[in-house]
Amino acid sequence: MASFEMSNSVVGMSYFHALPSLISYGAGFDTQCYQSLLKGRGLLFADQQLMAEEKTARLVRAYASDFRIDFARATIKMSSLGVLTGSQGQVRWNCSLPFASS
What we know:
The chain is an all-alpha fold. The chain has a domain at about 30-80. The chain is built from five helices and no strands. The protein has helices at about 15-20, 30-40, 45-50, 55-65, 70-80. The chain is elongated and about 45 Å long. This is peroxidase. One of its GO terms (biological process) is response to oxidative stress. Its cofactor is Ca(2+); heme b. Its EC number is 1.11.1.7.
């Protein structure tokens, strides 16, 4: 683990030692994640930005009570995408650019 530790923060803790205390919702991804956003305690700045616009804040409020049905639908939809793996897959250095075939 020592090879993964970053330099000490201002308070003298490494990022990886401090991270568990920063996570206000458990180790899982559940409604607690959204409830934390409602309290202004998003794990990342980008997470908390979901509350900045009414369009996404409305979804956060709805998912704070239950998001399982939408999550299940999205998972099923993603499973039908036919992702290429192994030697058929692609590794892109820049995901916004199409893969140049050789």
